[in-house]
Amino acid sequence: MQENGSSFGMWSDYRSKYEHMMIGLMSGTSLDGVDAALVRIKSDPSGKLTEVSLVDYVCVPYSDELRKEVIALCSTEHARIDKLVCAHFGISEWYAYTVKRLLQSAKLNSSDIDAVCMHGQTVWHAPETKMFPGPESDFAVKSTLQIGEVSVVHERTGIPVIGNFRSRDMAAGGEGAPLTPYLDALLFGSPHEGRVVQNIGGIGNVTVIPAGAERERISAFDTGPGNMVIDAVVRAETNGRQHYDPNGSIAAEGNVNQELIALYMQDPYFSRKPPKSTGREFYGAAFAQRFIEEANRRSLSFSDTVATATALTAESIVRAIEDFVLPDTPVAKLLACGGGSSNMTLMDMIRKRLPQGVSLHRTLEFGIPDNAREAIAFAVLGHESLMGRPSNLPAVTGAGRSAILGTMSL
Fold identical between 5-175+371-409 and 181-357? Predict the structure, then answer.
């Protein structure tokens, strides 16, 4: 693969261009696979973004073997340091392979791309402060880990790579997530109506965009489990033969147990005020196992359990909007994206629970494929970092200040 680092040149060369071709990579907590978006970004002479357009998109699904490896790494009971280190480099080979697939699809060479911007695979996210021994007094530490070595992707593709986006925000006192609201405001904001963008990946997160909102008025937070509990129930009940509920067909055959919904909606996370973020360490295998055990105590069938897990996601999303969005921000539309937006049973549950006056849509209706949004977002975040501009939103993450995100491999 031809190295294009020399053409990348000094930062001034990058910043002097009015058009850039970026690749954004995202592999989320749902562990579906790697999403890769080829994004054209145009700027005016002042450097301000004038256009963000999706040129091409590919998804490389994870193999069952890789999915099992990563799930084990997300568990304190099963994670091993040797496996973690190997996966940190090994998953980078998946990222590099996906970049090559995208270049083939778009009929481009590595020299046509300015940079690859990769989020990495989250295995642990711990935004709540913990104390760590220090030389004189203990340090207050927030932490997160996204595996995937940028140097491997750079070496395999010949393209400069920027990654590790969350860490700088956390170093500045933030939660390190969500980071996609920067793009949501750019693509989905309206001067006439308030909107929320609800991503339903492994974890659900919402971006709140008031009508005519300036950057400082954007807010966002994780709503709780997205597909994560649903997927875990399906995997457990099918002994790993199936990893998710296609189109919500299993849930559609079951009945929701409202008693179980009421029990789990008492989870303290749901009543905690934003900014807040969560992940597999809270809503992963252990949480799902407790959920299944409670369902078994109530003699729920497989389809009833999946239906109830689906309803928990729907209820947590709508409750978050009712409790933390609508009291301050009028909203006309909810735009759903992520894998969960293809789950028709889940979407129907959300539609029926939304307050009057709020209609449900998919980002696809606004020109952005449901699964491409986050990959596009990281292409834009990488561009902003290379332009020397902060792209975290302190009002969203709780950081003490704006910060330029990411770590670069040149």
Answer: yes
